[in-house]
Design brief:
Distance between the termini: 38 Å
Helix content: 55-70%
Order of helices and strands: HHHHH
Number of domains: 1
Shape: globular
Largest sheet: none
């Protein structure tokens, strides 16, 4: 039963939502130093970048008829478009969304939450996905791993 609960709730969007809620709490608690008048503009910029990365990557994957499910079996190795900028543009988009929340709610300690989210996503999802890609696409995946950075 506990494994089923973990599988049910262990999805990247839920981790991102949890990170946004943690940043909101940090913003509510407050901190003596913040982002001042730059916060809303930085928040908007990060939100736009994050949503664009996620949307563009999902669109590319849909066009190529491969899965966006992190536990699914990929049928195509995506290496062009936003996947030439980052091996994980959707997860990078998630990080930008959490950064947007941090700037919006003026919560500089949110950087710790961002670092935690990067660690969780890398540990729980990216390593497994990269193993799957290596098994499925062999040398082509290995070359892409060398050529394209995991995050940025």
């Amino acid at each position: 039963m506990p494994d089923m609960i973990v599988k049910l709730f262990d999805w990247p969007p839920l981790w991102t939502l949890g990170a946004v809620l943690a940043v909101w709490l940090l913003g509510w608690i407050g901190f003596p130093v913040g982002f001042g008048i730059y916060g809303p503009g930085l928040a908007l910029a990060c939100l736009i970048i994050g949503l664009w990365l996620m949307g563009r990557a999902a669109w590319q994957m849909h066009r190529a008829r491969t899965t966006v499910n992190p536990r699914g079996q990929p049928t195509v190795l995506m290496t062009d478009g936003v996947f030439a900028l980052s091996r994980n543009p959707i997860y990078l988009g998630d990080v930008f969304v959490v950064l947007a929340a941090m700037f919006w709610w003026d919560a500089p300690l949110g950087l710790l939450v961002v670092a935690g989210l990067i660690w969780v996503i890398t540990d729980r999802f990216i390593s497994v996905e990269e193993d799957c890609l290596a098994d499925s696409f062999g040398d082509a995946a290995a070359l892409w791993f060398i050529k394209t950075r995991r995050w940025i």
